[in-house]
Amino acid sequence: DAGVTQSPTHLIKTRGQQVTLRCSPISGHKSVSWYQQVLGQGPQFIFQYYEKEERGRGNFPDRFSARQFPNYSSELNVNALLLGDSALYLCASSLEGARRANSPLHFGNGTRLTVT
Amino acid sequence: DAKTTQPPSMDCAEGRAANLPCNHSTISGNEYVYWYRQIHSQGPQYIIHGLKNNETNEMASLIITEDRKSSTLILPHATLRDTAVYYCIVRVRADKLIFGTGTRLQVFP
Description:
The complex is a heterodimer.
Chain A: E1 5-7, E2 10-13, E3 19-24, E4 31-37, E5 44-50, E6 53-57, E7 64-68, E8 74-78, E9 87-94, E10 106-107, E11 111-115
Parallel strand pairs in A: 2-11
Antiparallel strand pairs in A: 1-3, 3-8, 4-5, 4-9, 5-6, 7-8, 9-10, 9-11
Chain B: E1 9-13, E2 18-23, E3 32-38, E4 45-50, E5 55-56, E6 61-64, E7 70-75, E8 84-91, E9 103-108
Parallel strand pairs in B: 1-9
Antiparallel strand pairs in B: 2-7, 3-4, 3-8, 5-6, 6-7, 8-9
């Protein structure tokens, strides 16, 4: 079975530009979450979507936005890129999302974003 | 902030059991303990989770103390491919995981 897939795998952008990252969850999973992992640190929560509605938001500026589509795939958008946005962006999916803490998250291998 | 404390690094000989400890003294009664690992340049991989009882799956065993203030992840026969950063997470909210800095496990031949 296919796991969580993310595209692109690598991306280089210039300061001030905008970027869109894409995620396809595991088949049957209705919840998608986004995490940012800066080099040397653990992943940090950005958003969670369940049934196309935002169910959770981390401590990130409004330059970060996301959405979930009817097929449960998701996009993460980052506007006005800063050098500090350089990171590995991880997508995770789960069956139940915000409703149950007993539903494990399964992560993709991420998109490596470099801002120059 | 993460509610867990883990040693920053550990070593284990190949073929031996790797026992990774985690302290979570402020855990609440309905909060789950999750373990993930991250191999370099990959996304975190789910290993196991539990609430009160010990759990076992094809990857590992999770031992939770009776007072739930600490737990141990056991990899019964470590291989070189188990070299990774292991994260112990107390899931406070259903919508997110709060990662700490984890334990870097090095399995040597």
